[in-house]
Amino acid sequence: MTKLISANVSRLRKDIVFWLAMFGMTAGSVIFSYLNYQTSLRYISDPIYVEDVLFNLFPMIAFVCAAFISLHLGTEFDENTIRNKLIVGHTRTEIFFANYLTCMAASLLLLFGILIFSGVTGYYFFKVFMLEKTQLVFLILCCILCTMVFSAICVGFAMNIHKKAISVVAAGIFMLCILYLASYMEGALLEAEMTYDSVTITMDGVQYGDLVPNPAYVGGTARKVMEFIYDMLPTGQAIQMNNMSFERCLRWPWLSAVTLTIATVLGYLPFRRRDIK
Questions:
Q1: What backbone torsions phi and psi does residue 109 show, to the nearest 5 degrees?
Q2: DSSP-derived 3-state class of residue 2
Q3: 208 has pLDDT over 80
Q4: Do residues 236 and 189 make contact, with C-beta atoms less than 8 angstroms apart?
Q5: Distances, alpha carbon 116 to alpha carbons 24, 74, 113, 197, 268, in Å
Q6: How far is it, in rounded angstroms, from Cα 122 to Cα 155?
Q7: SS3 for 144-208, per residue?
Q8: What pLDDT does 1 receive?
Q9: pLDDT, tens digit (0-9, with 9 covering 90-100), for 46-88
């Protein structure tokens, strides 16, 4: 498998899509930091911290992985590279995990590009960190694990779908669905337990009615289940990092480890049985 990984790394270095993705994500990190800085000068009186921009583009890495990995691995099927590897004696397990590890390393490089450029430009503009060093290291570890989950999901799609275009669309739609699911859960969990039964705008200002139970509030066991699913979804963790919401972050690493294992198995098992033309 060492030879396969070496060949994959050599091909990755020449992959224009990878370098375009790296440039786009790093440039976007700088631009978002600058735009946040300009907005803070004009409209925001509260202090802005480096962490406010550090994770800005993190949710986007799901879609970048979906596009890059599908195109990168799809080329191997188009050029019959996978079939040739099998002919010369490499096993399906070796081929799958060589591609798996290569794409995971590439995805982590993209992540580090985001974090480094966001961190440097964020510190240049805002100077102050909100979190302690140990907390920041922990959150970066969570980002790494979450990115590994995104990568494993995309490799599963790319290794089991022949056509690049279909693989890109399938992986992109899946990422969009779990992003929508996480966003929906976030909205439900943010509902207040109590709400006003009426709000009236008068000449004297806004007048509120009586506080009543909010029918949209999710409580009890349903809330715990929703929080668990929200935290287990890599998109849910990405949204919470972007929103600087770290109340349940201590369980993110082991939830990511579980999701990573499931995504890897669900990608590997079908590849062992699929017909490679």
A1: -65, -40
A2: helix
A3: no
A4: no
A5: 14, 29, 5, 48, 32
A6: 32
A7: HHHHHHHHHHHHHHHHHCCCHHHHHHHHHHHHHHHHHHHHHHHHHHCCCCEEECCEEEECCEEEE
A8: 79
A9: 778 888 888 888 999 999 999 999 999 988 887 777 888 878 8
Q: How far apart are CA 53 and CA 37, in angstroms?
A: 9
Which residue, chain included where needed, has tokens 């979804």?
Answer: 233
Which comes out higher in pLDDT, residue 126 or 181? 181
Length of the chain: 277
Residue 73: closest CA among 10, 172, 162: 162
For 234-257, give one letter per residue: b (16+ CB within 10 A) or e. Answer: bbbbbbbbbeeebeebeebbebbe
CA 39 to chain centre: 25
Give residue for tokens 């790394």.
Answer: 9
Give 84-125 as a DSSP string: HHHHTT--HHHHHHHHHHHHHHHHHHHHHHHHHHHHHHHHHH
For residue 107, the model assigns a pLDDT of 95
Q: Biggest alpha carbon distance in the chain?
A: 82
Model confidence over 90-133: pLDDT tens digits?
888 999 999 999 999 999 999 999 999 999 998 998 888 888 88
